[in-house]
Write a structure and sequence with these properties.
422 residues, alpha+beta, five-stranded mixed beta sheet, 5 strands, 70% helix, rod-shaped
Length: 422
C-alpha cells in the first residue's frame, strides 16, 4: 500500500515537472518581451524585428510542445526542436540582453529532450548565451571578451554542477524504475507460484486422501482374510466334520463346539480389525506365547500335532512386526490345514541381532514350485499374496520351499525393530 502510494506521488510529480518544462519557455519569452517594452537595453535591435523574432520563437515552441505533446518521446525530433530553441535564443539575446531569461531555458530543456551525448553541448551553448546576456548584450560582451569568458566559465561551473547532479538523479531514477519493474515482475511470478503451489497442495491432499483410502482398503482386505476368511474356512471344516459324525454324538458335539468357538473368535477379531487394534493374543501375551497358544488351538481343531519352538532371546518388537509374524503363522497353518494333508507341523521363531525369522514346516504333500515368486493357491490365491504383502510392508522377505511329496517350508524374515520404535 505504501509502495503504491509512493509510486502515485512520483508519477504526479513527473507530470507536474513536465508541465513546468512546457510553460517555462513562455514565461522567459514573456518576461524578456515585457522588459524590452518597458526598459529597452542600450544597443538593442529595434523593437519591431525583436518582437517578430520573439513571436517566431513562441510559434516554434507552440508547434513542438503545445500542439504536439506526443513528440516529446521522439528524441531526434526533439533534438531538432532544441537546436531551433537555441537558435532563437541566440537571435533574441543578440537583439536584446533581456532575453537572457529566455536563453536560460536551454539548461532545463537539455535533459528532457536531448540524448545524453548532446546534453553537454547544449549546456555549453546555453552558458554562452546567458553569459552574453549577463555581459550587457552582444556588442558589449565582445568588446569585453575576457569578462565574457569569466561569465561563461561561471555559468558552466554552476550549470555543470546542476547538470552533474541531474544526471546522477536521472541514473538513480532509471535504476529505481528498473527495480520497480523487476519487483513487479517478481511479485507477478510470486503470485503465479503461490497459485501454482495452492493447486499442487490441493492435488497432494487429494492424492494423500486417495492413498489413505487405498491403504485402508488393503489393510481391511488383509484383516478380513486373516480373520473372517480363515475363521469361516475353519467353521465350514468343523461343520463338514460334524455332518460326517452325526451318528457319533460326542464327536458331533465337539465339532459343533469348535465351530461356535471359531465363530466367536472370528467375530471378536473382526471387530478389533475394524478398530485397527492388535490381535487379542498379542495384547495379553508375548509373541512366543501367542504362537504357542495359536499352535495349540490349531492342533485341537485339526487333529494335527503342531510344535512351536523359540530360539534366541525373546524381546519386545514393534507392534506391526509382531502382528506380521503372527498373521504369517496363521496363514501358513491355514494353508497346511486346507492343502497339505500333513501329520506334523513345526513353527520356529528365531530372535537374532537384526532379524527375527519365523519358519513353518510341514510333512504334507507339497507342490511344484514355478517361476512365480509365490505359488498360487486354489480359489483366489490371496493368502500367500497377503502374507508377502504384510512381510514386505515391514521391510522383510518371504521365502517358500516345497516339492511334491516332500512337504513345504515357509520362512518370513523381518527387521528386529524394537518395541519402542515409532
Amino acid at each position: 500500500m505504501t509502495s503504491s502510494g509512493g509510486h502515485d506521488r512520483l508519477t504526479s510529480w513527473r507530470e507536474r515537472e513536465a508541465t513546468l518544462y512546457r510553460v517555462l519557455p513562455y514565461g522567459g519569452l514573456a518576461l524578456g518581451t515585457l522588459l524590452i517594452l518597458v526598459v529597452p537595453a542600450p544597443r538593442s535591435l529595434a523593437t519591431a524585428p525583436t518582437l517578430a523574432i520573439a513571436a517566431a520563437a513562441g510559434c516554434w515552441i507552440v508547434w513542438f510542445l503545445t500542439l504536439h505533446p506526443g513528440w516529446q518521446s521522439r528524441r531526434k525530433l526533439m533534438a531538432v526542436y532544441y537546436v531551433g530553441l537555441l537558435t532563437f535564443a541566440a537571435a533574441l539575446v543578440a537583439a536584446s540582453p533581456w532575453y537572457g531569461f529566455f536563453a536560460w531555458i536551454g539548461y532545463t530543456h537539455a535533459f528532457p529532450v536531448l540524448p545524453k551525448r548532446l546534453r553537454i553541448a547544449g549546456v555549453i551553448a546555453t552558458a554562452a548565451f546567458v553569459a552574453t546576456s549577463q555581459g550587457g548584450g552582444l556588442a558589449i560582451a565582445m568588446s569585453h571578451w575576457p569578462l565574457w569568458l569569466v561569465l561563461v566559465l561561471f555559468n558552466l561551473v554552476v550549470a555543470g554542477s546542476v547538470t552533474w547532479f541531474a544526471m546522477i538523479a536521472e541514473l538513480e531514477d532509471a535504476k529505481r524504475r528498473r527495480l520497480m519493474a523487476e519487483l513487479g515482475e517478481a511479485n507477478r511470478q510470486l503470485t503465479e507460484t503461490v497459485q501454482e503451489n495452492a493447486g499442487l497442495h490441493a492435488q497432494l491432499l487429494t492424492q494423500a486422501r486417495e492413498a489413505g483410502v487405498l491403504d485402508e482398503r488393503q489393510r481391511m482386505a488383509r484383516e478380513i482374510h486373516d480373520t473372517l476368511a480363515q475363521g469361516l474356512t475353519g467353521i465350514i471344516t468343523q461343520l463338514e466334520a460334524a455332518e460326517q459324525t452325526r451318528d457319533r454324538s460326542a464327536d458331533w458335539r465337539r465339532h459343533v463346539d469348535n465351530a461356535l468357538a471359531l465363530a466367536r473368535e472370528s467375530l471378536t477379531e473382526a471387530r478389533r480389525s475394524v478398530r485397527a487394534v492388535r490381535p487379542e493374543t498379542l495384547e495379553t501375551s508375548r509373541l512366543p506365547d501367542a504362537l504357542v497358544e495359536l499352535g495349540g488351538r490349531w492342533s485341537a481343531l485339526n487333529g494335527v500335532r503342531a510344535e512351536v519352538a523359540t530360539t534366541g532371546t525373546p524381546r519386545p518388537l514393534h507392534p506391526e512386526v509382531e502382528v506380521t509374524l503372527l498373521r504369517a503363522a496363521q496363514e501358513a497353518l491355514s494353508n497346511v490345514a486346507r492343502h497339505a494333508a500333513a501329520s506334523r507341523v513345526g513353527l520356529t521363531l528365531s530372535y537374532m541381532t537384526d532379524v527375527v525369522t519365523l519358519d513353518v514346516r510341514d510333512d504334507g504333500t507339497g507342490f511344484e514350485l514355478t517361476d512365480q515368486p509365490l505359488p498360487r493357491e486354489s480359489g483366489s490365491g490371496y493368502g500367500l499374496t497377503a502374507m508377502r504383502q504384510r512381510v514386505t510392508r515391514v521391510g522383510g522377505e518371504l521365502a517358500v520351499e516345497s516339492e511334491p511329496g516332500g512337504g513345504t517350508a515357509i520362512s518370513a524374515s523381518v527387521p528386529a525393530l524394537p518395541g519402542g520404535a515409532g
